[in-house]
Amino acid sequence: MPEARFSSIFAPELYGRLRWFSNLRWMAVGGLVLGAIVGPFVGFAGAWPSLLYVGLLVAVYNLLFVWRLSRYDSTFYGELHECAIRQMVADLAALAVTIHYTGGMESPALIFFAFHMAIGTIMVATRLMYLLAAGASAVLTAIYFAEHSHWLVSYAQYHHEMGAEPASRLVLLMVAMFGMVYLTDSVTSRFKVHAIELHRTGEDLLRKTEQLEALVRQKEELEQRKSHYMRISAHQLRSPLGTVKTSLEVLTGGYVDPASERGKKLLAGAIERVDGLLEIVNDLLELAKVREGRDKAPWKSGINLTQLVMDLLDSLEPVAGAKGVAMHDDLDPTAVLAWGIPPDLVSAFENLLENAIRYSRPGGEVQVRVERREPGEILLTVADRGIGIPEELKDQIFHEFVRAPNARRHAPEGTGLGLTVVREVVEAHGGRVEVVSQEGSGSAFTAFFPVDWTPPEVQSLLQQGNQPVTASTRRRGAPAGSSPKS
Ligand code: ADP
């Protein structure tokens, strides 16, 4: 029987039983006092006043136990168990004295030894109860021999000499005591095992309920984020659409001649708005691709980040050249990630590089650096000397559709979605992005990648024994991937 486990679970239960046991003891005190008074009249010559003293003694130690019990922590099993053992020993001692004064092996109180064993087995460890039964047997045997050798006065009514009848009573009582411990244990241990199972099931249920609650909370948050995202996406699309609609109504309603100077201006404005709308739609699709791609886990091993950046620099060279922005690079060829999704990484890096060019002033400079840093980190830094980011917006620019006023003035065509792609891609690779910027002086974005990071999706594939896809190498100068902003 798993007693130790049982102990830790049922301290409050033991506490309750001890209280109940103390209440029972008051009845025993009453019985002893009554026995002391009535005893001599019904043939128990030794009852008065000895039983009264025993009764008083029991009352005193019971008071003591009740007082101690009120000070115990009802959840601390160790102390309660010790208290139960002390009570058992005290009771058995009081009972042994009672037996002596009420006729030794003829005492009608002998049966209480067996009761005590049953009650004790419910409360304390079974092996201890066998020990107590052995101790009680020894004390009773000592009383038996002491009375019959006249070393102790015998209060037996019929003054048996040492003989078969009192000896067999003693043996029977011993058998009854051990039998009680055994029987009580075999009955209660089954309850104990069931109680442990019940307790475990309860704990399991509680854990599962907590997990479920966490999942529901997560789902609610996700739903909220989704609806927030949809709302601001719709809002971003609505105002350019409204402008285009108004321009077309003005033209089709005959208020302005489409061929006139003003008509042409209106049409050009509408086309510009439609371009902006297309840009937003493209970026939204790009973001969706990045988010959905992760679920399909197109992870590849051994991704050379420097190679990806070199390819991008090649393809963006003309854009930078057209703006008069000089590109410098410092790339470590050993910057290889254990696992990655190449098209997503290309999207993220492309956004960073395009931003650096876009928010640079003509004649500006962009510095791109890829370096390995111990322990096990790769850093990609894109720094420019452009318009910078206002202090109050630095924490928000990685959120969808956030654009700083200076960026809107400098480059009206942005969507505010590129940095969201950057953050989500880098985080999906176990990394993080940081920005250092000063408005008017420039910005430096750094993506930190843990080199040996293995995505959970790949981990579970590897555990199942499936082989994830390995990297395909890309030549310098080959197209780097889809361009979200082109
Ligand atoms: P977009 O560039 O289309 O506006 P992003 O999500 O890429 O969208 O960037 C969000 C905002 O962060 C930009 O509008 C701009 O205010 C700021 N930002 C990003 N990169 C830079 C940079 N290199 N220099 C200055 N501001 C930047």
Task: Please tag this protein with its features.
486 residues, two-stranded antiparallel sheet, 13 helices, 10% strand, rod-shaped, disordered C terminus, binds adenosine-5'-diphosphate
Q: Can you describe what's shown?
A:
The structure is a single chain. The protein is α+β, with helices and mostly antiparallel strands. The chain contains 13 helices and seven strands. It has a five-stranded mixed sheet. A two-stranded antiparallel ribbon has the order 1-3. A hairpin with a 3-residue loop joins strand 6 and strand 7. Helix 1 crosses helix 7. 30% of the residues are buried. The C terminus is likely disordered. The structure holds adenosine-5'-diphosphate.
